[in-house]
């Protein structure tokens, strides 16, 4: 399972099959998760001044196949955009990824495609959980870190950082008594040293890129209305 797939499961309500966060936040977060995954695999890095390079640029380390079709497609896109800032490619990186991941999770029997029509006219597809075992394990790992204080592994740390950037941690960990404390704990985890330097750079860049892209999309929507 990809980090993006785990994130997608967390961001959809198991019963209603609807996302708990709207566009473009959800799509940008999924794109960011894919870039983080590529970094954890040693495929991509973010440049720094320490190496005599322009800081904050995409650098391809290994363009060979990851063995995952969706990830390979995004790796090819990053290769074509090498030298760009992560925020400048996030929209393209996120394009159609949600539909691809939802379809694949349904094929695996983890989600169910529930097709209907709104007012009997407009087609809509909801994605309720069909087999929530894996998602339950992911949630248990998140709760262990956020509520018990267990040190996060790289994957769980990345998920917490992305959820924190979206400001949806209390929507995912719904039984927490103090939501403010939960948000603060997630922020501390996101900023702590739970991953290799390259991955931490990717996470930080994705958090900044998501914020910038969401603000830009909101401004564009406001100006057109």
Describe the structure in your own words.
- The chain is mainly alpha-helical and 225 residues long.
- It has a single domain (3-213), classed as yeast vps74-n-term truncation variant fold (Orthogonal Bundle).
- The protein has 10 helices and 4 strands, in the order H-H-E-E-H-H-H-E-E-H-H-H-H-H.
- The strands form 2 sheets. The chain has a two-stranded antiparallel sheet with strand order 1-2. Strands 3-4 form a two-stranded antiparallel ribbon.
- Helix 7 packs across helix 9.
- The mean pLDDT is 89.
- This is GPP34 family phosphoprotein.
- It is a peripheral membrane protein.
- One of its GO terms (biological process) is Golgi organization.
Gap between N and C termini, in Å?
39 Å
> Average pLDDT value?
89
Number of helices: 10
Beta-strand residue fraction? 5-15%
Overall CATH architecture: Orthogonal Bundle
Helices and strands in order, then pairings?
Blueprint: H1 3-10, H2 25-40, E1 44-46, E2 58-60, H3 69-80, H4 86-94, H5 97-107, E3 114-118, E4 122-126, H6 133-148, H7 154-166, H8 169-172, H9 179-191, H10 197-224
Antiparallel strand pairs: 1-2, 3-4
Helix pairs in contact: 1-2, 2-4, 2-7, 2-10, 4-10, 7-9, 7-10
